[in-house]
Design goal:
The chain is about 40% helix and about 20% strand. The protein has about 130 residues and is an alpha/beta fold. The protein has a single domain, classed as Response regulator (Rossmann fold), CATH 3.40.50. The chain has a five-stranded parallel sheet, with helices on both faces. Helix 1 links the parallel strand 1 and strand 2. Helix 2 (about 35-40) packs parallel to helix 3. Keywords: Phosphoprotein.
Length: about 130
């Protein structure tokens, strides 16, 4: 199963990507929302999951979520915000825009696994 990891921090993309790899995903990295949209518009299959940072140059995560939800080809992709933005209003905005889950940085491997279990993307008890 493919997973899109969208974050302007290379280190964070690697951390999230390694965690997802340990859970059976094939991570694909994007530096910002527009880069991710360009990847989605390519010939590769649509990933099952996108882990999205909020604050990025070129296109932020909230705009990415909104654009994905506007495209019928991508509507089935599970979207999870993975960000330092922790204010209740921002969480509500992201979920209202179409994100399925919201994970606040810093996070643990167990926290990602737990969110993916809730979303039905990994079996309960799967180790990372």
């Amino acid at each position: 199963m493919r997973a899109l990891v969208i974050d302007d921090s290379r280190a964070m993309r690697r951390i999230v990507g390694q965690t997802l790899r340990g859970l059976g995903f094939e991570p694909v990295e994007a530096e910002h929302g527009q880069h991710a949209l360009d990847l989605l518009a390519g010939d590769e299959p649509v990933p099952a999951l996108a882990c999205i940072d909020w604050n990025m140059p070129v296109m932020d995560g909230l705009t990415f979520v909104t654009r994905v939800r506007q495209n019928p080809q991508w509507r089935d992709m599970t979207l999870m915000m993975v960000t330092t933005e922790s204010e209740h209003g921002q969480i509500v905005r992201a979920l209202a825009a179409g994100a399925h889950e919201y994970l606040i940085k810093p996070f643990t491997t167990d926290a990602i696994r737990d969110k993916l279990e809730l979303l039905g993307l990994v079996p309960v008890g799967e180790s990372a």
